[in-house]
Amino acid sequence: MRPVSIRQWSPWGLLLCLLCCSCLGAPSPSTAPEKRPGSQGLRFRLAGFPRKPFEGRVEIQRAGEWGTICDDDFTLQAAHVLCRELGFTEATGWTHSAKYGPGTGRIWLDNLSCSGTEQSVTECASRGWGNSDCTHDEDAGVICKDQRLPGFSDSNVIEVEQHLQVEEVRLRPVVGRGRRPLPVTEGLVEVRLPDGWFQVCDKGWSAHNSHVVCGMLGFPSEKRVNTAFYRKLRKRAAKASARRPKPLGRQITKLKVKPKPRVGRGSIKRLLAQRQQHSFGLHGVACVGTEAHLSLCSLEFYRANDTTRCPGGAPAVVSCVPGPLYAASSGQKKQQQSKPQGETRVRLKGGAHPGEGRVEVLKASTWGTVCDRKWDLQAASVVCRELGFGSAREALSGARMGQGMGAIHLSEVRCSGQEPSLWKCPHKNITAEDCSHSRDAGVRCNLPYTGVETKIRLSGGRSRHEGRVEVQIGEAGSLRWGLICGDDWGTLEAMVVCRQLGLGYANHGLQETWYWDSGNTTEVVMSGVRCTGSELSLDQCAHHGTHIACKRTGTRFTAGVICSETASDLLLHSALVQETAYIEDRPLHMLYCAAEENCLARSARSAPWPYGHRRLLRFSSQIHNLGRADFRPKAGRHSWVWHECHGHYHSMDIFTHYDILTPNGTKVAEGHKASFCLEDTECQEDVAKRYECANFGEQGITVGCWDLYRHDIDCQWIDITDVRPGNYILQVVINPNFEVAESDFTNNAMKCNCKYDGHRIWVHNCHIGDAFSEEANRRFERYPGQTSNQIV
């Protein structure tokens, strides 16, 4: 119900209202709200911005005082209870670190622990009312399902703030519209209010305001606008408006405009139309420059009855600078490439989309994670802008982007939002006892709109996450859709398609799609597609161009994908390899089964069986799944291969490659491991085992578990019988053929320094392939086998 102003009452009506308490909001017996057991005397509301009506910062009124809830130990179960208190059926998510802005007053609850079935929040465990060691920077919020409880009579009214809110921001280009490529980097600022899109008055507009707007639109920084040009454009538009009644088109053709920058008839016509619409909705914008959203700035909105809007002013214009991934023109790309740039000290890992992932920082030439303690939007925005994206859309905690391994470098990062790098923010150095990888921090950044998702689509699938891949080709006016040849199509290509469509990770890349209806699209328009997996769109991958060469013709052999919002992420425990490596001279009569499975070097075929021996480098490998989905073999049980000699099934032909390399990368010895048994050997404390190979059981590795291949089992080795003494690199690669999709393939390789004197071997300095800085990796490969080679 909308509030009614007292000024609308007549004197007699006001007097009557004062005499009758029901006018002041006291409910009559017939409309008395239903009170929930245990919630007597409590009221709940959603507050903060920017938000939708079913989400926000949770506030509780107790003893007449409104307060908030700390996010410590907050869970989705607690969010379910609170959403029901607010009159919604359930929660779909929750937020931390004051995503909807910090509250004021008391912090009523801390360490709130609910099972999700409680009728009231008072039934949940906590530290007690008003007992908290948090600040309002840790206020919790909820995202409820937009569905009300049937027959809910709400005494806990959701007190939606009555002031207007800026929901979205966009730039509307004035010059060269239709010819400028996406993303749009310069134009009139428009904000979306509940009644539609409106312009912003430029009176008092500052560079801080532009910085916030550019951040929301996915750009790391802003640049000065040529105000003289826009002023001249407005004057010409005003003259064109004053010269009526001649048709507008004839007046504009008489205007002479300097060629740089070019102003066409359409530019003046659009500006004139915008001037006549009086579409100003916002003025008095005052940002500090560190805000992640324009709604967090001080704003003044025009009222509906304001007859004069922005007198003497004009629409605010903003010009943004795109990051390296989104440079809008080749000139910008060349300019950015020409600037000397050192190696970045911050990166994102494990995200399904560009601009999201687990935050990792480089310290002492080694990459490590950041603890989520006190992690907030300001710190996340510093990371996003440092990497060439906009401000942060979300600061993630609790290893939402998967757990890292190795060091945790930073904790309690406190940024103002103005720092050029996360390392410039005050922070606390950390030890292993202070934090665990279950609290790794992550970010989701604002990205520029590029429109790449409109150039590709999936058809024929059972859901929008799967189908035959169709691409759009041709020029404007002659666009058409076509199919992609399935030859050599695999997981890496599927990763790019799923990323381009915003559908997460690739679950499968399919070379045959005969079971999906192709509809009216039958022409194959692309072949020979080869991607690295990191491209933003399919047109950035290598392909045959206009020449189509497809070994298997027909629509049944065209490319398809199955996408997923989550994926596994395998990581080898490198320290265990270093600790367990040793040499064994094994008699040939004990290697018949290994020879059958091709686990020995080629020279073993000409050996004097069963006499003699082979020299084997043995080691244990412990493979962790740190992703957000279980790792499952690509093939189902019906296609697993039984190996009689060893008495087990192989669920993947090649699961791991083992190689001995020279300093220049030449392979001198190799081994491989088929996944004869993928199972959960051990798991973290709170994770239950799901996969076991016994009795033809399901194979896989659960999230939070690891599979251990001991050094004393067959084929867990490299045959180095023919290797000469020297310095080498030991390399282990998991899932080398990308048969199974993962969120991150860059951490699948492990390397060690290796020194072999013909009798003994020293394996040291083992590390995951992307765990060191680029310079440290160069030093590693330049001096393999040197025991004095320390990475600093």
Question: What does the model show?
Answer:
The chain is α+β, with helices and mostly antiparallel strands and 792 residues long. It is 15% helix and 26% strand. A hairpin with a 7-residue loop joins strand 1 (42-47) and strand 2. The radius of gyration is 32 Å and the shape is globular. The N and C termini lie far apart (65 Å). Mean pLDDT is 81; it is low at 1-38, 154-163, 246-261, 333-340 and 787-792.
Attribute tags:
792 residues; alpha+beta; seven-stranded mixed beta sheet; 40 strands; globular; disordered N terminus; disordered C terminus; EC 1.4.3.13; repeat; metal-binding; glycoprotein
Short précis:
The chain is 15% helix and 26% strand.
Strand content: 25-35%
* Distance between the amino and carboxyl termini: 65 Å
Q: Could you describe the largest sheet, including whether it forms a barrel?
A: 7 strands, mixed
Shape: globular
What is the count of DSSP helices, taking H or I runs of 4+ residues?
12
Low-pLDDT residue intervals, each spanning 5 or more residues: 1-38, 154-163, 246-261, 333-340, 787-792
Total beta strands: 40
Radius of gyration: 32 Å
Instruction: State the share of residues found in helices, binned by percent.
Output: 10-25%
User: Which structural class fits the helix and strand makeup?
Assistant: alpha+beta
Instruction: Give the rounded overall mean pLDDT.
Output: 81
